[in-house]
Amino acid sequence: MKIGVVGVGYVGLVTGACLADLGNDIICVDIDKKKINNLKKGMLPIFEPGLEELLKRNKKRIKFTSILREGIQKSDIIFIAVGTPPKENGEADLTFVKNVAKGIGKYINGYKIIIDKSTVPVGMGDIIASIINSNMKKKYQFDVVSCPEFLREGSAIHDFMNPDRIVIGISKKEVGNKVAEIFKPLNTKIIITDIRSAEMIKYASNSFLATKISFINEIANICERVGANVKVVAEVAGLDKRIGGLFLEAGAGFGGSCFPKDVSALINIAKHEDYEPLILKAVMETNKLQRKNIFNKIKQILGTIEGRQIGVLGIAFKPNTDDIRDAVSIDIINLLLQKGCNVKAFDPAAMENAKKVLKGVHFCKDIYSVAEDSECLVILTEWNEFKEADLNKIKKLMKNPAIVDGRNIYDPKFVKKLGFKYIGIGRN
Ligand code: UDX
After folding, report:
1. Ligand 1 centre from 210 Cα, in Å?
2. Best probe residue, ligand 1, of 13, 259, 425 (max atoms within 8 Å of C-beta)
3. Residue owning the nearest CA to atom 25 of ligand 1
4. What number does CATH give the domain 259-423?
5. pTM of the model
6. pLDDT tens digits, residue range 12-65?
7. Beta 190-193 vs 166-169: how paired, if at all?
8. Distance from Cα 14 to the centre of ligand 1, integer Å
9. H or E element in which residue 145 lies
10. Could you tell me if 154 and 48 are in contact, meaning their C-beta atoms sit under 8 angstroms apart?
11. Residue having the nearest C-alpha atom to atom 3 of ligand 1
12. Which residue ranges have their beta carbon within 6 Å of ligand 1?
């Protein structure tokens, strides 16, 4: 099939590369000429395991352009995969999606299926259709479909190729079946439903996962107070199939480009309809509180905080990515700086991005230079190399051997036995 993908962010680039791998001819479009020129040279705008190889392998089937007209006119199916960043009030900013819809209206040259992969408020499918209609000079037939994306950064290709389900939102059965053809090679459950339900499935799914995280963080906070171990509690509660063990890792809370944005957007959608979403609001509040809790743990371990040397391990919002969007590290580091701490930090992938955002931090080349002379080591991302670090060496290098383990990567007993002061999450 001839497929256009508009937007080469995480979703667009992974979708384009994977669809090419499934045998389709892909044109990836982005208004950012620099990004496109780099991609033509094989330079990727993001760090995603396996993506570079996938693009190389499918070089012949994937083209990059900054000319929207080309992407639209040479494709039968067009994926919209542009960003919907949050506005100040938490609402999704739909400018990019609307601009793409305008462009489709302007350049459409025959029947097209337009598939929205950007996360948009419920009802946006109809708005996309009306924008296309009002920008068409000559009338052509088209259909707008919602096909929400569930991939996770760091395992995006695996997630694309092995989805739990594919959701296709369109009321015309024949169009739904045509879109389903694209995903048939993935051999998974394909659900064809109405467009509004499809749009809502994305918000409901991400909000539920975020709810699981805030829930287990709340349980962790209670565990700490009553002397229980949240790891055991989560693992055993998760054995109940109705609960499920995934996304029950207590820690410093969730960040990234999806959960905070999507939960906030759903809160706004509900409020817009005069409904007060109490659970969703609590999910966000608890997540914010968890970042403060990490700061309080550092205070608890050090007593006074001003002028102390803190070493932060992990800046990316999760391992295997260089993404620092809404990462817990940013809030925590800024709070530490505000309170007069000296902060050193290291992340295996996110240093370049971090340097652009975090001012006043001393960025180090590895774990051990962060540890040197630090009075408290704070773990904020569970990278494997942190788990495997030489704790004896770290202890010798630190001025005061203390760890606040915001991702529960170390065994408390073992670390304490080595002579560290140690505070984790939800277990003593
Ligand atoms: C998420 C969804 O998983 C994915 O389906 C959707 O398409 C996009 O949003 P992503 O943001 O890439 O993916 O990361 P994810 O692995 O879901 O983690 C999100 C955040 O939750 C991270 O900050 C992570 O550290 C945190 N998290 C995750 C926890 O704190 N505990 C957990 O048990 C799981």
Report:
1. 8
2. 259
3. 318
4. 3.40.50.720
5. 0.94
6. 999 999 999 999 999 999 999 999 999 999 999 988 999 999 999 999 999 999
7. parallel
8. 17
9. strand 142-146
10. yes
11. 152
12. 149-153, 206, 209, 213, 247-249, 251, 254-256, 258-259, 317-318
Please say whether the beta carbons of 252 and 426 come within 8 A. no
* pLDDT score of 89 more than 90: no
Give the span between the Cα atoms of 51 and 16, in whole angstroms.
10
Rounded-to-integer distance, Cα 125 and Cα 311, Å: 47
Which atom of ligand 1 has the smallest separation from the CA of 11? Answer: 7
Mind listing the pLDDT tens digit for each residue in 250-264?
999 999 989 999 999
pLDDT digits (tens, 9 = 90+) for 197-249: 999 999 999 999 999 999 999 999 999 999 999 999 999 999 999 999 999 99
Per-residue exposure over 142-176, b if at least 16 CB sit within 10 Å of its own CB, e if not: bbbbbbbbbbebbebbebbbebeebbbbbeeeebb
Mean pLDDT, rounded, of the chain? 96
Architecture of the domain defined by 2-203: 3-Layer(aba) Sandwich (3.40)
Residue in the structure block whose two tokens are 């010798």: 396
| Spatial distance between the Cα atoms of 405 and 415, rounded to a whole number of angstroms | 11
The ligand 1 atom nearest the CA atom of 151: 7
Residue 213: Cβ-neighbour burial (10 angstroms; 0-12, 13-18, 19+): buried
Would 2-203 and 259-423 be classified into the same CATH topology? yes
Which residue lies with its CA nearest to atom 31 of ligand 1? 249
Distance CA 27, CA 4 (A): 5
Cα torsion for 170, 105, 26, 94, to the nearest 10°? -70
Q: Are 402 and 376 in contact (CB under 8 A)?
A: yes
Residue 61 has what DSSP assignment?
A: G
Give backbone dihedrals phi and psi of 114, rounded to 5 degrees, phi first: -105, 120
The domain locations on the chain are 2-203, 259-423
